[in-house]
Amino acid sequence: MLALGIVGSPRAGSNSEFYVSTALETLQAQGIETRMILLRGKTIRPCEADYKCRGAPDHRCQIEGDDFLEIYEQMVAADAIVVGSPVHFSAPHPTLWSLLVRAGFPDKAGFPNYGPGVFSRKVGGPITVARRAGQNFAFAQLLLWFHINDFIVPGSIYWNVGVARSIGDAAKDEEGIRIIRRFAENIAWLLEKTR
Ligand SMILES: Cc1cc2nc3c(=O)[nH]c(=O)nc-3n(C[C@H](O)[C@H](O)[C@H](O)COP(=O)(O)O)c2cc1C
Fold it and tell me: pTM of the prediction?
Protein backbone atom coordinates (compact mmCIF):
# COMPACT_ATOMS: atom_id res chain seq x y z
CA MET A 1 0.00 0.00 0.00
CA LEU A 2 1.24 3.42 -0.91
CA ALA A 3 0.46 6.77 0.72
CA LEU A 4 1.36 9.94 -1.14
CA GLY A 5 1.92 13.27 0.59
CA ILE A 6 1.69 16.44 -1.50
CA VAL A 7 3.07 19.66 -0.04
CA GLY A 8 1.60 22.85 -1.47
CA SER A 9 3.92 25.40 0.11
CA PRO A 10 6.32 27.43 -2.04
CA ARG A 11 8.77 27.66 0.90
CA ALA A 12 11.76 25.39 1.60
CA GLY A 13 11.41 23.52 4.90
CA SER A 14 7.82 24.70 5.17
CA ASN A 15 5.40 24.12 7.99
CA SER A 16 3.14 22.31 5.52
CA GLU A 17 6.01 19.92 4.80
CA PHE A 18 6.45 19.32 8.53
CA TYR A 19 2.80 18.33 9.02
CA VAL A 20 2.70 16.16 5.88
CA SER A 21 5.95 14.46 7.02
CA THR A 22 4.36 13.86 10.43
CA ALA A 23 1.45 12.10 8.70
CA LEU A 24 3.76 10.05 6.47
CA GLU A 25 6.00 9.01 9.38
CA THR A 26 2.93 7.79 11.26
CA LEU A 27 1.82 5.81 8.20
CA GLN A 28 5.30 4.33 7.77
CA ALA A 29 5.23 3.17 11.39
CA GLN A 30 2.07 1.23 10.46
CA GLY A 31 3.92 -0.53 7.62
CA ILE A 32 2.66 1.63 4.77
CA GLU A 33 5.01 2.75 2.01
CA THR A 34 5.09 6.54 1.63
CA ARG A 35 6.23 9.10 -0.91
CA MET A 36 6.27 12.89 -0.70
CA ILE A 37 6.00 15.43 -3.52
CA LEU A 38 6.92 19.07 -2.95
CA LEU A 39 5.12 21.46 -5.30
CA ARG A 40 7.74 24.11 -4.55
CA GLY A 41 9.39 25.03 -7.85
CA LYS A 42 6.88 23.04 -9.90
CA THR A 43 4.77 24.60 -12.61
CA ILE A 44 1.15 23.54 -12.73
CA ARG A 45 -0.86 25.85 -14.93
CA PRO A 46 -4.51 26.48 -14.04
CA CYS A 47 -7.37 24.65 -15.76
CA GLU A 48 -8.13 26.21 -19.14
CA ALA A 49 -11.78 25.11 -19.03
CA ASP A 50 -11.67 23.96 -22.68
CA TYR A 51 -13.36 20.65 -21.78
CA LYS A 52 -10.82 18.74 -23.91
CA CYS A 53 -10.44 16.28 -21.03
CA ARG A 54 -14.10 15.26 -21.34
CA GLY A 55 -14.30 12.35 -23.73
CA ALA A 56 -10.51 12.16 -24.16
CA PRO A 57 -9.50 8.47 -24.37
CA ASP A 58 -7.19 8.77 -21.36
CA HIS A 59 -9.81 10.72 -19.36
CA ARG A 60 -7.33 13.22 -18.06
CA CYS A 61 -6.30 16.84 -18.38
CA GLN A 62 -4.92 17.51 -21.87
CA ILE A 63 -2.72 20.50 -21.01
CA GLU A 64 0.91 19.60 -21.74
CA GLY A 65 4.30 21.11 -21.02
CA ASP A 66 4.23 21.49 -17.25
CA ASP A 67 4.68 19.27 -14.20
CA PHE A 68 1.07 18.11 -13.88
CA LEU A 69 1.18 14.70 -15.54
CA GLU A 70 4.04 13.20 -13.55
CA ILE A 71 2.36 14.16 -10.27
CA TYR A 72 -1.09 13.09 -11.46
CA GLU A 73 0.22 9.62 -12.32
CA GLN A 74 1.60 9.25 -8.80
CA MET A 75 -1.77 10.33 -7.38
CA VAL A 76 -3.53 7.67 -9.45
CA ALA A 77 -1.06 4.99 -8.27
CA ALA A 78 -1.48 5.80 -4.56
CA ASP A 79 -3.91 4.15 -2.15
CA ALA A 80 -3.97 7.21 0.10
CA ILE A 81 -3.33 10.90 -0.55
CA VAL A 82 -2.65 13.61 2.01
CA VAL A 83 -2.29 17.20 0.85
CA GLY A 84 -0.81 19.96 3.00
CA SER A 85 -1.19 23.62 2.20
CA PRO A 86 -0.38 26.99 3.69
CA VAL A 87 -3.36 29.28 4.12
CA HIS A 88 -2.87 32.34 1.92
CA PHE A 89 -5.64 34.92 2.18
CA SER A 90 -7.96 32.30 3.60
CA ALA A 91 -7.37 29.90 0.69
CA PRO A 92 -5.07 26.99 -0.23
CA HIS A 93 -1.98 27.73 -2.30
CA PRO A 94 -2.90 28.17 -5.99
CA THR A 95 -0.38 25.64 -7.34
CA LEU A 96 -1.93 22.91 -5.23
CA TRP A 97 -5.39 24.04 -6.23
CA SER A 98 -4.49 23.95 -9.95
CA LEU A 99 -3.24 20.39 -9.49
CA LEU A 100 -6.41 19.28 -7.74
CA VAL A 101 -8.80 20.96 -10.18
CA ARG A 102 -7.05 19.47 -13.20
CA ALA A 103 -6.78 16.04 -11.56
CA GLY A 104 -10.40 15.88 -10.48
CA PHE A 105 -12.44 17.47 -13.27
CA PRO A 106 -12.17 14.84 -16.05
CA ASP A 107 -13.11 11.92 -13.88
CA LYS A 108 -16.31 10.87 -12.11
CA ALA A 109 -17.27 7.26 -11.43
CA GLY A 110 -20.49 6.26 -13.16
CA PHE A 111 -21.03 9.36 -15.34
CA PRO A 112 -21.01 9.12 -19.17
CA ASN A 113 -18.01 10.85 -20.86
CA TYR A 114 -16.07 10.92 -17.61
CA GLY A 115 -13.25 8.68 -16.46
CA PRO A 116 -13.82 5.53 -14.39
CA GLY A 117 -13.24 7.19 -11.02
CA VAL A 118 -9.50 7.01 -10.56
CA PHE A 119 -9.77 8.34 -7.01
CA SER A 120 -12.79 6.28 -5.97
CA ARG A 121 -12.42 4.86 -2.48
CA LYS A 122 -8.89 6.04 -2.05
CA VAL A 123 -8.36 7.27 1.48
CA GLY A 124 -7.07 10.72 2.38
CA GLY A 125 -7.67 14.30 3.27
CA PRO A 126 -6.20 17.76 3.70
CA ILE A 127 -4.04 19.56 6.22
CA THR A 128 -3.85 23.35 6.33
CA VAL A 129 -1.47 25.63 8.21
CA ALA A 130 -1.96 29.27 9.07
CA ARG A 131 -0.63 31.88 11.43
CA ARG A 132 -4.03 33.01 12.70
CA ALA A 133 -7.21 33.01 10.59
CA GLY A 134 -8.79 31.54 7.47
CA GLN A 135 -8.17 27.90 8.32
CA ASN A 136 -11.79 26.84 8.05
CA PHE A 137 -12.21 28.25 4.57
CA ALA A 138 -9.03 26.72 3.18
CA PHE A 139 -9.58 23.40 4.96
CA ALA A 140 -13.19 23.21 3.77
CA GLN A 141 -12.20 24.04 0.18
CA LEU A 142 -9.76 21.14 0.14
CA LEU A 143 -12.15 18.83 1.96
CA LEU A 144 -14.80 19.48 -0.69
CA TRP A 145 -12.32 18.34 -3.35
CA PHE A 146 -11.78 15.04 -1.54
CA HIS A 147 -15.52 14.55 -1.10
CA ILE A 148 -16.54 15.16 -4.72
CA ASN A 149 -13.77 12.89 -5.95
CA ASP A 150 -15.18 9.88 -4.11
CA PHE A 151 -12.48 9.60 -1.43
CA ILE A 152 -13.07 8.14 1.99
CA VAL A 153 -11.93 10.86 4.40
CA PRO A 154 -11.29 9.92 8.04
CA GLY A 155 -11.55 12.38 10.88
CA SER A 156 -9.22 13.15 13.74
CA ILE A 157 -9.50 14.61 17.25
CA TYR A 158 -9.83 18.09 15.72
CA TRP A 159 -9.79 19.50 12.18
CA ASN A 160 -6.40 18.97 10.49
CA VAL A 161 -5.13 22.49 11.01
CA GLY A 162 -1.65 23.50 12.11
CA VAL A 163 -0.88 26.82 13.75
CA ALA A 164 2.47 28.21 12.62
CA ARG A 165 3.96 31.30 11.06
CA SER A 166 7.74 31.11 10.56
CA ILE A 167 9.69 28.12 9.32
CA GLY A 168 10.11 25.72 12.25
CA ASP A 169 7.04 26.88 14.18
CA ALA A 170 5.10 23.73 13.34
CA ALA A 171 7.48 21.60 15.38
CA LYS A 172 6.31 23.53 18.48
CA ASP A 173 2.61 22.96 17.73
CA GLU A 174 2.06 19.96 20.03
CA GLU A 175 -1.71 19.85 19.58
CA GLY A 176 -1.35 20.09 15.80
CA ILE A 177 1.10 17.18 15.80
CA ARG A 178 -1.32 15.06 17.87
CA ILE A 179 -4.16 15.90 15.47
CA ILE A 180 -2.13 14.93 12.40
CA ARG A 181 -0.83 11.72 13.97
CA ARG A 182 -4.38 10.62 14.82
CA PHE A 183 -5.54 11.53 11.31
CA ALA A 184 -2.75 9.36 9.85
CA GLU A 185 -3.55 6.51 12.25
CA ASN A 186 -7.13 6.64 11.01
CA ILE A 187 -5.94 6.53 7.39
CA ALA A 188 -3.89 3.42 8.21
CA TRP A 189 -6.87 1.87 10.02
CA LEU A 190 -9.12 2.52 7.03
CA LEU A 191 -6.58 1.17 4.55
CA GLU A 192 -6.35 -1.99 6.59
CA LYS A 193 -10.15 -2.37 6.59
CA THR A 194 -10.73 -1.54 2.96
CA ARG A 195 -7.80 -3.11 1.06
C1 LIG B 1 0.73 35.65 0.85
C2 LIG B 1 0.46 35.11 2.23
C3 LIG B 1 -0.83 35.10 2.71
C4 LIG B 1 -1.10 34.62 3.99
N5 LIG B 1 -2.40 34.60 4.42
C6 LIG B 1 -2.67 34.14 5.67
C7 LIG B 1 -4.02 34.06 6.14
O8 LIG B 1 -4.99 34.34 5.43
N9 LIG B 1 -4.21 33.68 7.41
C10 LIG B 1 -3.18 33.33 8.25
O11 LIG B 1 -3.44 32.99 9.39
N12 LIG B 1 -1.90 33.32 7.81
C13 LIG B 1 -1.62 33.72 6.55
N14 LIG B 1 -0.33 33.68 6.09
C15 LIG B 1 0.71 33.08 6.93
C16 LIG B 1 0.98 31.60 6.54
O17 LIG B 1 -0.21 30.84 6.48
C18 LIG B 1 1.94 30.96 7.57
O19 LIG B 1 3.19 31.63 7.50
C20 LIG B 1 2.12 29.46 7.35
O21 LIG B 1 2.96 28.94 8.37
C22 LIG B 1 2.74 29.17 6.00
O23 LIG B 1 2.89 27.78 5.83
P24 LIG B 1 4.17 27.17 5.07
O25 LIG B 1 5.34 27.30 6.03
O26 LIG B 1 3.77 25.74 4.86
O27 LIG B 1 4.36 27.92 3.81
C28 LIG B 1 -0.04 34.15 4.81
C29 LIG B 1 1.27 34.17 4.30
C30 LIG B 1 1.52 34.62 3.02
C31 LIG B 1 2.94 34.60 2.49
Answer: 0.98
- Give the pLDDT confidence of 136-193 residue by residue, as tens digits: 999 999 999 999 999 999 999 999 999 999 999 999 999 999 999 999 999 999 999 9
Distances (CA, A) of 140 to 30, 89, 97: 28, 14, 13
Domains and CATH numbers, the chain: 2-194 (3.40.50.360)
Residue 131 alpha carbon to ligand 1 centre in Å: 6
Distance 90 CA to ligand 1 centre (A): 9
Q: Name the residue of 18, 85, 87, 137 to mutate for ligand 1: max ligand atoms within 8 A of Cβ.
A: 87
